[in-house]
Amino acid sequence: MSHEWKCTGLRWSSDGPVLVWDGGRRSALPWGKRVAFAVPEGGVRRCVGARGNGCPVRADVSRRSTGARCEECARLDRAHSVAADTIADDPRPYRVYLAWFGPGMVKVGITAVERGSARLLEQGAVCFSWLGTGPLMAARRTEELLRAALKVPDRIPYAEKRAVRSALPTGEEERAVEVRELHDRALGLSAWPESLQPAECRVVDHVTVFGLDRAPVAFGEVVELVPGGAVSGELVAAAGPDLHLEVERRGVVVLDTRLMAGWELVPSDLPGGRLTFPVREFRSEQEGLF
């Protein structure tokens, strides 16, 4: 019987994307690497637990859930998350950023200074700029200020991000326009928190880092893993948690690696360029995204 592996997620290192497995094993993902795995017949997706602890009841979870947690474990995980705004006494300095994912898609967010730009890579930000640095609560107030005064969201669904990657402007300056304009407007707000030090607008572009400058446009996305299903494709790009895999005859498909969590996976015996998991094709802009 083949050895089974449990994926704990996609991480971004200075050398690019890396798949991390239960037990600490890491698989580097250079462009051109063959990504191949299968879900055994009869496989069941189990909750991954919370905060490093396993789910006490090993609950079944939805195949389409990107969190791979049962309701109780999801609640516990979020209760200790900075993103949930439940931690008010974190002494670390934080940065506020503006991230751009495609035409008309800019969001505001915060990240600990010590993390550098890792958060932006994890979110699949095509380009970004820092907006300011200061204490956590000042960063929080700035985030809320932009939401209220400029109608800037703090969340954009991944499905929307990946669906517009085929429509990205080709030049860095074009991709930076919306971030620069919003940065200027944000610094002009009268209610800017005094303890948040404004940052100069310096747009960082990730198109080359993600490999999107050379990869063919994706035609669709994997919607779920299923028992007995498999994939075998060549990695041509990656952004956030998404792998862009070239599969035979169909072109490039996007696999959200968060869908892999909770499954016991085995090596795939499919020949190169094959895919048997369900796929949803991206619609044209005229038809609407969803």
Describe, in plain words, how this protein is organized in 3D.
The structure is a single chain. With 290 residues, the protein is an alpha+beta fold. Helices cover 19% and strands 28% of the residues. It is built from 6 helices and 15 strands. The strands form 3 sheets. Strands 4, 10, 11, 12, 13, 14 and 15 form a 7-stranded mixed sheet that branches. Strand 11 (230-239) and strand 12 form a beta hairpin. The longest helix is centred in the middle third of the chain and has 16 residues, at 172-187. The N and C termini lie far apart (41 Å). Mean pLDDT is 90; it is low at 285-290.
Question: Shape from CA axes?
Answer: globular
Helix tally equals: 6
Beta strand %? 25-35%
Major beta-sheet overview: 7 strands, mixed
Average pLDDT score: 90
Terminal CA distance reads 41 Å
Helix content: 10-25%
Gyration radius from CA atoms, angstroms: 20 Å
Q: Quick recap of the structure?
A:
It is built from six helices and 15 strands. It is of the alpha+beta class.
Main attributes of the structure:
290 residues; alpha+beta; seven-stranded mixed β-sheet; five-stranded antiparallel β-sheet; 6 helices; globular
Layout: helices, strands, pairs:
Blueprint: E1 7-13, E2 16-21, E3 26-28, E4 34-38, H1 71-79, E5 94-102, E6 105-112, H2 118-123, E7 127-134, H3 136-150, H4 158-163, H5 172-187, E8 197-198, E9 204-205, H6 207-210, E10 218-222, E11 230-239, E12 242-247, E13 251-256, E14 274-275, E15 279-281
Parallel strand pairs: 10-13
Antiparallel strand pairs: 1-2, 2-3, 4-11, 5-6, 5-7, 7-8, 7-9, 10-15, 11-12, 11-14, 12-13
